[in-house]
Design brief:
Length: 255
């Protein structure tokens, strides 16, 4: 099925429209994401006469090919972050030269924000790397670095918590600039990164990946001020925004 328009009729819901057009009511979110700016924050508030854009099956809200679902995105991100292929148990115990660890290369500041860890001196605040000399809070039964790197379930829960926190912070930072994520989703933006021009279609999965690399305020600076940033190893936020963009992701996946 290719992309088309659909006029909302009496008695319609997004689930009913998805069932009618896709044969699968569970695909209502794909329609909502493509029309979020029109519908607003409540997907139940569609009105008779609205003309909705219905993405083709296998397309995201910008009309480009969907790379996969949220789990597919995490597998791709985890493989790059850890340096080990998807399914390799060494992903969870991976640690880089700056002490970032696990499948998603968690650092001290993030785990402090998520409530797993406490420290007065940590990476970015008096320390030149993640030394993990603080204390663990016992959240989800984790009382040591060793327990954290040996718990797949906790790492998978923590990355979802991180995405949820970053989404809130990105929204807050954009709101301070008079914008919201919805103003950017599906839009093509051209950025200047060290003299090189790069045009990227903005998606929620790309925004979340970029926030994981450079923090929510790095994403806000990119979108509001066209200011790309790089991590300690020279990886550009634009790489994450682009390479992990286009996945079929919604806040419900990690909220």
């Amino acid at each position: 099925m290719s992309a088309q328009n659909y006029t909302v009729q009496a008695g319609d819901t997004l689930s009913k429209i998805a069932e009618k057009l896709y044969g699968d009511s569970n695909q209502w979110r794909q329609i909502y994401e493509a029309n979020r700016n029109l519908i607003g924050s409540n997907p139940e508030q569609i009105q008779v006469g609205m003309v909705l854009t219905i993405p083709g099956q296998g397309q995201n809200d910008s009309g480009s090919a969907v790379q996969g679902n949220f789990q597919s995105m995490l597998e791709a991100l985890g493989a790059f972050e850890s340096g080990f292929p998807s399914g390799d148990p060494r992903q969870y115990t991976s640690e880089n030269t700056l002490g970032f660890m696990g499948k998603y290369q968690f650092g001290e500041p993030l785990l402090i924000d998520l409530g797993y860890y406490k420290a007065d001196v940590y990476y970015g605040n008096g320390a030149d790397k993640n030394y993990w000399r603080g204390t663990w809070t016992g959240k989800r039964g984790i009382n040591s670095k060793e327990q954290f790197i040996n718990s797949r379930d906790v790492q998978e829960a923590a990355i979802r918590e991180a995405f949820n926190l970053n989404l809130q912070r990105v929204n807050s930072a954009l709101a301070a600039g008079g914008q919201s994520i919805n103003n950017y989703l599906g839009q093509q933006k051209t950025f200047n990164d060290g003299g090189a021009s790069k045009t990227i279609t903005i998606s929620l999965s790309g925004i979340m990946a970029g926030a994981h690399l450079r923090g929510p305020y790095g994403v806000a600076d990119l979108l509001l001020k066209n200011q790309p940033s790089h991590d300690e190893y020279g990886t550009s936020i634009l790489k994450y925004i682009e390479e992990y963009g286009g996945y079929n992701v919604s806040p419900a996946d990690f909220s």
